[in-house]
Amino acid sequence: MKYLYIGLTIGLVFLFNGLQASAQLGDTDELTSEKDSLQQKVKVAFRSVDENDLLGGVSFIDVDKMTEKAYTSTSLAFVGNLIGGVNGNIWGMDDMLVVVDGMVRDANNVLPTEIDQVSILKGPSAVVLYGSRAAKGVIQITTKRGEIGEPKVQIRVNTGIHVPKSYPKYLGAAEYMSLHNEASVNDGNDPIHSIEDIYWTSTGNNPYRYPDLDMYSSEYLRDYFNQTEAIAEITGGNERVKYYTSTGYAREGSLLKVGNTEDNYTNRLFVRGNIDIDVAEFIKVQADANATFYNLSNAQANWWGNAATLRPDRVAPLIPLDYLEENDIPSWNTINTSNNIIDGKYFLGATQLNPTNPVSDAYAAGTEDFVSRQFQFNTRFDLDLKSLLDGLHMRTKYGIDYAATYSKSFSNEYATFDPQWTNYTGEDMIASVVQYGNDKKATNEVVSNSSYRYTYNVSSQFDYSRTFNNSHNVFGMVVGNIWQRQLSGQYHRLTNVNLGLQASYNYQHKYYLDFSAALPYSTKLPEGNRLGFSPTVTLGWRPVKEDFFDNNVFDELMLTVSGGIISHDMDIVDPNNPENEYYLYKTVLQRGGWYSWADLGGEAATEFQRGNNPDMTFVKRKELNVGLRGAIMNHLLTFNFNYFMGKMDGALARAYSEYPIYFTQVGYPTSSIIPLINYNIDDRTGFDFSMYLNKKVSEVDLTLGVTGTYFETEAAQRDENFQYDYQSRVGRPVNSLWGLENLGFFNDAEDLANSPTQQFGETRLGDIKYKDQNSDGVIDEKDEVYLGRWDTPLRLGLNFTAKWRNFTLFAMADGFFGGKGMKNSDYYWVSGDDKYSEIVRNRWTEATKATATYPRLTTGSGANNFRYSDFWMYDTDRVNLSQVQLTYDLPETVLQGSFVNGVSLYVSGYNLLTISKEREHLEMNVGNAPQTRLFNIGLKGTF
Q1: What pLDDT digit, counting tens, does each position of 233-277 carry?
Q2: Residue 906, domain member (yes or no)
Q3: Domain check: are 222 and 73 in the same one?
Q4: How far apart are the first and last CA of the chain?
Q5: Is there a single domain that holds both residue 128 and residue 276?
Q6: Which of 266, 354, 565, 621 is most buried by its number of CB atoms within 10 A?
Q7: Nearest to 288 by CA among 304, 269, 271, 266
Q8: Is 302 inside a domain boundary?
């Protein structure tokens, strides 16, 4: 069946590209051309409404208009900046739902050039009709559709360069070896590296005998890499059929230039087609298709991961053949067996500890391609049932997605050689070589890591919309929708089943009342509790419609109040194993113990791991929000403000305090019949806003936008058994960081002897000293305190547009404030034989103890120093200059008489600047490819 879908998708796509005449009648329903409306239509759940009639926490972005002045390749690039309420999530909730053309899909499979509008549904009344899986907000993407008129072709070409922002800074081999010796001596052991080895390494005279490998050097990395894409859009139609198609190709290179990595690339080929057909006066049909082909080709070398871990003194990857003596026949015979003599000058170096390395892998290990194929198809039927009842419509949608990924690889085995050095002639020479491994080139391509994802969406609804006496506007909807996703390797399908009801009334577009409700169904819950109820109510008032209101100032003003309870199963998960979502209401019983007779295999006990809970039910999002939006002085200033206050009530927990102590077996084997119950409660309050100032100064049109989101979360109820109140999670932010409070370093023996005993491993001078919060003379987990929030409670956005004649300047900046982070990667937490970064230069020693900012070096585990504490914590506050673009539109007079209707040239930059006290840390990636700035030039032509 899936191949039938795939074939149908591709066939429809190419059919759309071949259409030359199509359109649809302009009327007032959802399938009409919205570009000609006096008021902009905004897509909300299962319908469109006029912008002035929006209720209940909804914001939107006209992406089609935005891309005229600010091109981007990411579908949600503008969302966090141009409107309030979104900061990687919606109103501080995780796991928002993405809906594309009414279907649950991925945002990254849609390009901004294909998007007409993005709507953000935030309030309970806005999301309720989508059901349980939409309880934490919805981002709704609407792609472009055809327009009545002659065929119009738009071609866009972009090319640019990615320039790395920064690289991790690691110590060279000689300095590393010296400090590694220091670490060993600190632990009471002998030095690891000889003075002679350190000296000869520092001279750099022979980096092949005394390696000093820098995997971030220009020897292996380019200064930049290219990204290029081309996109063609075709739209047009007549009164019967209209169409929109888009196709494009993008290719991106790589920073690496060593061996086969020089050919690393990523490419994306896509085709999309949307068609609208007026079959008859009362029947309209939509059919959409999309196909995306994505390839990632790499040499089989984990370059960035190894760059963060491979010590600089471990291996010289390439050894010149010149170091072999001409008459050393045995060594030459060994080397000549290799199939991997690089440029005729080098053989692949190795050591016993490192028989392979990333450089050798890049030349000889082979290649691997990651392949992704995604096919989407959806159709919609719209029946005007005015012959039965004026204003009645029936609409039905069906959509399928099929995504498959797999890897193709040629994995080679290869030989490396460990040179045994000598200096008997006064010069370093190779006396002999030791071979590791053998050359064996792969002849068969291996396909592995195959996975698939299949999703289908179905919805059907009856709409009733009428206006009586030019004053009473009535809308009603009954909608049923289901979507289900099957992932390879998973037994249970992710399912959302929902029946929704909406009844709306407004009087003269002045007073509004909306009741929206849903009946979600969940198989995660026990029989009898699988059907939920989600009621919401919204009131709205537009004072500008009142006779007493002074319209000389306000062009628009709308006040809304909305409240509701959304029942959902998104948080019906095992708190100790979030991957486990089903049968959590069931008892878990297993064999256990340690001793038995005969054939029981050492298990002589019966263990209860969980009890039964037939009363388990939905988690409830209970919320009240107030909204105010408007415009003043002929839209000189537009504004939108939303306040929300609510809670997530009923997340699962094992509430030991709610049950007698004998429900749990103390000792071995452990056993408990305490079930998971709806217990945890999280409170959430906050606000979002957006304000736009629009002003024309002489010939310059100026727009300044300021947006923001702020929220607080609090664990309102938890089942806890902390001995000390300062460790209680209740009343603390949900996204809290916990750890020890540091008091600096142990600087002398008396300080060490007189301080509380620290239980995290051996403690010496130069180790971090912690505060004894409970004054019990011991530092342990009981001394951990609240340190801050790891999320970002405040996000601000700033965007600016200046248009003068044919020039348009756009700039966008984002600010993030109030969050904390922990420097806990291997770049900072250095122990054992780890690679050393420059951070260790300011380590503690007897000579530097007055100014040291890093604990003593150790070849042990460093368990005392390297644990969550405020010593490693930092502020994540920052301002990012996200995008700047200058666009020039060729004057129409230049193009008169040609087949070209418009040409735009633009230059743009992305991720240009970060302003932060922790800029170096925030811009640095460890173990991954570096962050980059993108400098782009583009051309758009319309024909």
Answers
A1: 999 999 999 999 999 999 999 999 999 999 999 999 999 999 999
A2: no
A3: no
A4: 40
A5: no
A6: 621
A7: 271
A8: yes
476: which DSSP letter? E
Domain final residue pick, 110, 145, 180: 145
* Span 415-423, average pLDDT: 94
Q: Residue 122 corresponds to which tokens in the numbers above?
A: 């935030």
Q: What is the pLDDT of residue 607?
A: 82
Report DSSP letters for 273-301, one per residue.
EEEEEEEETTEEEEEEEEEEEEEEEEES-
- Does one domain contain both 401 and 277? yes
Q: Residue 27's pLDDT is what?
A: 34
Residue with tokens 């849609």: 110
Q: How far is CA 522 from CA 297, 409, 532, in A?
A: 41, 41, 8
Handedness of CA 770, 774, 779, 785 (dihedral sign): negative
Phi/psi for 609 (5° steps) reads -95, -20
Number of domains the chain is built from? 2
Q: Averaged over 21-30, what is the pLDDT?
A: 32
| Distance of alpha carbon 649 from alpha carbon 567, whole angstroms | 10
Let me know whether 372 and 277 are in one domain: yes
User: What tens digit of pLDDT does each residue of 285-309 get?
Assistant: 999 999 999 999 999 999 999 999 9
Q: Cα separation of 601 and 593, whole Å?
A: 10
pLDDT at 598: 58
Strand intervals (E) in 93-148? 97-100, 103-104, 115-121, 138-143
Host domain of residue 373: 164-170+214-383+396-434
Is the pLDDT assigned to residue 880 strictly greater than 70? yes
The conformation of residue 596, written as its DSSP 8-state character, comes to: -
Could you tell me if 231 and 370 lie in one domain? yes
Pair 222, 133 in one domain: no
Q: Which residue in 457, 449, 455, 446 sits closest to 403, CA to CA?
A: 455
Three-state SS for 605-666 is EEEEEECCCCCCCCEEEEEEEEEEEEEECCCCEEEEEEEEEEEEEEEEECCHHHCCHHHEEC
Q: Does some domain include residue 691? A: no
Q: Determine the residue type at 722.
A: F
d(CA 441, CA 83): 55
pLDDT of residue 18: 39
Indicate which CATH number applies to the domain containing 122: 2.170.130.10
**Tally of helices (H runs) and strands (E runs) in the chain:** 12, 45
Same domain flag for 355 and 218? yes
| Per-residue model confidence as pLDDT tens digits over 670-705 | 788 999 999 999 999 999 999 999 999 999 999 999
- Whole-number Å distance between alpha carbons of 449 and 459: 34
Of 662, 690, 808, 30, nearest to 393 by C-alpha is 30
Task: Identify whether the C-beta of residue 738 lies closer than 8 Å to the C-beta of residue 718.
Answer: no
Say what the pLDDT of residue 779 is. Answer: 97
Give the helix/strand (H/E) hosting 749: helix 749-754
Per-residue pLDDT reduced to its tens digit, 814-823:
999 999 999 9
Q: Does 138 share its domain with 221?
A: no
Residues 6 or more apart in contact with residue 385 via CB below 8 angstroms: 282, 392, 393, 394
Whether residue 225 is contained in a domain is answered as: yes
